[in-house]
Each structure stands twice: as C-alpha cells, then as structure tokens.
Amino acid sequence: MNKSLDFHLQNSTYAIFHSNDSRYQDLSLNMLYEELNAASLNDVIEDCDDTETPYGTCISPWDAANCLLDTARTVKFVRGLAAAIRKKRKKQSGKKVSILYAGCGPFATLALPVTALFNPNQIGFTVLDIHEASIKNAQRIVEIMNISAYFDDFVCQNALDYPSANQDKKFDIIITETMTAGLLNEPQAAITTALSDMLEPDGIFVPEQIIIGVKLKAEKILNQPAIPLGTIFLLTKDTKPDKYIPLLKANTKTPPTAEDGLEYGIMLTTQIKIFGPHILQEGESAITMHVPIKKTYKKEDGSQIRIAYPLGGGINEVRVKAF
Ligand SMILES: C[S@@+](CC[C@H](N)C(=O)[O-])C[C@H]1O[C@@H](n2cnc3c(N)ncnc32)[C@H](O)[C@@H]1O
User: Fold this and answer.
1) Distance between CA 34 and CA 24 in Å, rounded?
2) Residue 183 sits in a domain of what CATH number?
C-alpha cells in the first residue's frame, strides 16, 4: 500500500464524482498523475514507442499515461463507466459485472477511480493493451494500491486479435478510449467493431456512440457561428460495415446560410456519448477538438461536399471535394 498514492486516488475520485469544479478536478488529477509516475517503471515506459497497425496507431505508454491529464475526458469517461456498471448491477442483481478494458495504458486510468465505488465481488476488470510495458506497469500500480482483487486478468495483446483467441469469452461491459478527434490516427473504430461481438446480449459498449459531423467556418470573420452540414458517421457497437470499417465516405450539402463570396474552412466535429447523460461535447477535450480538413471552400465551388478517409488514418489521407 502506498499511502500517498491512495490519498490522491481518493481525492481524484471525490473530484470526479462529487464536484463540477474543473480547476479542482484538474489539480487533483495532476497530483494523482505525479504519484502514478513516481510509482511507475519509468525506464520500461520510456523505452516503448508507438505501434503502427493498418487500422491506426497504438500510442506509446508515455503518451497513453498523459491522457489522464485531459481532465474533461477522464472525468466523463469515468462517470460514464460507473453509470454503466450501476445499470448492469441493477439488471443482474447479485452477479459480478465483468468489464473488458481495451487499451488500458500504463495506469489503467479509467478503472482506478471506479474501484473506490464498488466491492471486488461486484466488478471484475480484464485489462488489455498491445504494449507489454503498459500491462506490466498497470499490474504494478494495481498491486501497489492493493486493489488486485478487482482485476481478473492482465492481457498483452492486440485488441483486434483478442476475440478470435477467446471465442467463448463474453463481457457485460467493454470500454475503450483509443481515439483522437475525427476518429483519425488511432484504432477506436476497428477496436469497437472487433470487440462488440464479445458483449453479452444486453452488454454495454462504452462509449455508446461517437458522432462525426462536418461544419463550415468562415475564414477571417470573427464571431461568425460555424454552419453545421450534418453527421457523416456514427460509431456504435452495432456499426457493422466492412471489416474494421476502414473507409468513411460521405456527401453533405451546403445550406443556404453559407454566403456567396465568403471563404470557409471545412472542419470535422466529434461528439462522444459515453453513457447515459455523460457526453463529451465538441471542443471540450483534446479528443473532441474540431479538425480543419480543408481551407478556402467557396459556395460557388459547388453545393455538395464529398469527404472520404480511412478511419484511424492520418489527416493527410482525408480527401475533400466540392462539386
Ligand atoms: C489513448 S490511450 C488511453 C489510455 C488509458 N486507457 C486512458 O484512458 O487514459 C490508448 C491505449 O490503447 C492502447 N491501444 C491502442 N490500440 C490498441 C490495440 N489495437 N490493441 C491493444 N491496445 C491498443 C495503446 O497502447 C494505449 O495504451
């Protein structure tokens, strides 16, 4: 037991569940981050780089650790996970809720505060990451904190290979945060598609829904509200297109409110419905920032905008055409 780490986890848990003061949440998560770092296998973590896959980059343990500091993201994902567990517990009274946490990073960040709310006979985590350094470190943190009883398994594997290697396994809840804004760069879409068959019939996928939209933003004109062109992609556990949904293709129409002669930038928007009322809104976190994909669109270029890109691909792979 590490008393200081324990204290800062309790403090962060309080800030997450009982406060809406973002400065208090920031401060307590920063202090927890410092303590987690101090207790970590830093040589092992720093030695491990990103891993590239055809469906996106699996970010390095170091970068994954830093995700904790995106306060709005961490607070809302943890609240959403806790709400999903409560809902499951109500439905299956008495039965332990099994949770697969895919892409746990070196701290198993989203699981830690939740252990303060339940008993080990109520929830059991299987945590998984492609990076051995992350799995080793997460296991170490859990042991130091004396919360091993909440963890059923630590798995070092590509999440995309996990279902075929474990065909009889099912989970009540699956959680993954392996994304950046616009569902670019990281493999959230592929992981959601690959893992959703591992849910029990009434199982909950966290996040429940990721909504990608498009907006026009007038260049060089301050305070002009962006013009929404609509949703171009919805990722849920039921999204079942091509294998691992590699390509997003969509057409949008420019509404009449776009002004002739003005130059617009085109941006991707992201909203994440984590669970129930816990929603990460556009621009609230690094993973829901607007992503500019083309500058200098003019209405006379055409009223339809076509967008295509591989989910998990880089920004330079986004194709935008007006016609
Ligand atoms: C954005 S970080 C999130 C870290 C932590 N879960 C959090 O929420 O703070 C994503 C993590 O997912 C892991 N990951 C990404 N793609 C993966 C894959 N295909 N299989 C297993 N792990 C993956 C990365 O190694 C990284 O640790």
Assistant:
1) 15
2) 3.40.50.150
pLDDT tens digit string along 71-81?
Answer: 999 999 999 99
- Are the CB atoms for 322 and 305 separated by under 8 Å? yes
- Is the CB of residue 198 less than 8 Å from the CB of residue 100? yes
Number of domains in the chain: 1
- Give residue 259 CA to ligand 1 midpoint distance, Å: 42
Rg (Cα) of the chain, in Å, rounded?
A: 21
- Where in the sequence is the domain holding 129, given as residue range(s)? 3-322
User: For the chain, where are the E strands, in sequence order?
Assistant: 51-53, 56-58, 97-102, 123-129, 151-156, 171-176, 199-206, 209-218, 227-235, 247-253, 264-275, 278-280, 291-297, 304-310, 319-322
- 307 in Cβ contact with 318 (< 8 Å): yes
Please tell me if the CB atom of residue 106 comes closer than 6 angstroms to any atom of ligand 1.
no
What is the rounded distance in angstroms from the CA atom of residue 183 to the CA atom of residue 193? 13
Among 59, 160, 162, 174, which residue has the most ligand 1 atoms within 8 Å of its CB, making it the best to mutate?
59
What are the tens digits of pLDDT across the range 80-123? 999 999 999 999 888 999 999 999 999 999 999 999 999 999 99
Please state the pTM of the whole predicted model.
0.96
* Cα distance between residue 173 and residue 176, in whole Å: 10
CA torsion sign for 268, 272, 278, 283 is: negative
